[in-house]
Amino acid sequence: MGIVVVSGTGTEIGKTVVTAAVAAVATAAGRSVAVLKPAQTGVGPDEAGDAAEVVRLSGAVGHAELGRFPEPLAPGTAARRAGLAPVGPREVAEAARKLAASHDLVLVEGAGGLLVRFDEEGGTLADAAALLGAPVLVVVPAGLGTLNSTALTAEALRARGIEQLGVVVGSWPDAPDLAARCNLADLPEAAGAPLLGAVPEGSGALDPAGFRAAADGWLAPALGGHWDAAAFRELFAAE
Q: pLDDT (tens digit, 9 = 90+) per residue, 168-188?
């Protein structure tokens, strides 16, 4: 996997922390990792963006950001309101390929969901993934409502002929409710792809050393970790 696109089924569900976990595990294994954030929204010019946060937590060696727009909106809308040029799928694909030429792994972290508009032509993260021929890792919430958004995202990927690596729960609660516990069994069916991890809520607040030490316990072997989906389901089996 030279390039992996990380998308979510929505916003504020743990995409950046999951990206950091994948980067941390790969970096610990001796791989050179770069993080690409095509469009950063809702962050001021002097604030650290998502890509920089991934580097801070994971120890990844490089990062790039193609566009930054101050309002916390969809990238296309935020660019238009700011009077700035948007970032289109072809620019994303070109930047990812350039990073891949000098890094073992490039993680492309989207903004919000898979089909959020990047530009006035309707370009999306899915279009960038298709141009790259890159697989998509989907980050999902744990609780009620996640099955529908997960199934819709999977359907959109299949319709475009894009490989889905699997799904990762972006913020697994300390005290999961019945819906969250049942979803551990139902998410792979909804996605048509394996459950590849669950990152505990609040993990982004760990110091970098603690984050890196714990990350491989949150991700399945397909992502370089040792997390076991069956054992995790058993631990939280719904009664």
A: 999 999 999 999 999 999 999
